[in-house]
Amino acid sequence: MHGLAVDALSVVAGSRALVDAASWSAPSGAITALVGPNGAGKSTTLRAVAGLVPDRARASGAVLLDGERLDALPARERARRVALVEQSTEVPPQLTAREAVRLGRTPHHRLLGFSIGDDAIVDAALGDAGAATLADRRLGELSGGELQRVHLARALAQQPRLLLLDEPTNHLDVAWQLELLALVRRLAADIPVVMTLHDLALAATHADRVVLLDGGRVAAEGAPDAVLSPARIRAAYGVEAEIDAAPGGVAIRYRRLEDPA
Ligand SMILES: Nc1ncnc2c1ncn2[C@@H]1O[C@H](COP(=O)(O)OP(=O)(O)OP(=O)(O)O)[C@@H](O)[C@H]1O
């Protein structure tokens, strides 16, 4: 299959399955949203797809990108193919944004050092992520939203064949959320993009496919309107959802089960 196929992925810490035999796919040319309640295993899943597993945990199952087993590749090879932007990444505060984005090129270098062409790639990545004006600022001085854009630029500089974004709209104001989603749409023309989202209305509006995780398992997978139904939202989150699908986007109103309609 063209794109990402996750087959019976489990991440087990001690006797506890954080991700439990989850199988799902994310085709090229599409945005796939990974949704689910707190603790459902979304971040653990993205990290495991990128080859990162918590200390003292064990991953099993297969992760295939365009038919190639990613989980069988050495870390450096995997890093050439997969970029992950996490919710919070420790950053050296003295590094400039440009220096941080340049680190995205590291997996592509044969020896330590930089390659010809890196500068143009780094500049393009900074521009695409809306971080060009931040290039010479130090990371320690940036706001949460600005830092988020720099992390995205670093991922773009990696020129990955699979882009994984953990809560990419966190910290972003509404204008930058829309910019980010437009950029993700452009990127998804060529590669699979998987992003975790808490905002189900954003997922319903902007994703082509939705994977609903609950308790580490795949509760549903498919078209947004099929997965994000009131019944499934009730089952996974324990809330009532009233879904209003207008041409400009989906709006969802929530209420607790015990509250009057
Ligand atoms: N290093 C770890 N060791 C043991 N358990 C962990 C570890 N990291 C996460 N967990 C547990 O794994 C489960 C899944 O966590 P994960 O962060 O993947 O969920 P999530 O769906 O991303 O949640 P959220 O929406 O709150 O970000 C949680 O119960 C969490 O407590």
From TrEMBL:
This is Histidinol-phosphatase. Keywords: ATP-binding, Nucleotide-binding, Translocase, Transport. Residues 4-240 form the ABC transporter domain. SMART domains: AAA. PANTHER family: HEMIN IMPORT ATP-BINDING PROTEIN HMUV (PTHR42794). It comes from Agrococcus terreus. It comes from the Bacteria. Pfam families: ABC_tran. The keyword Zinc does not apply. The keyword Transcription does not apply.
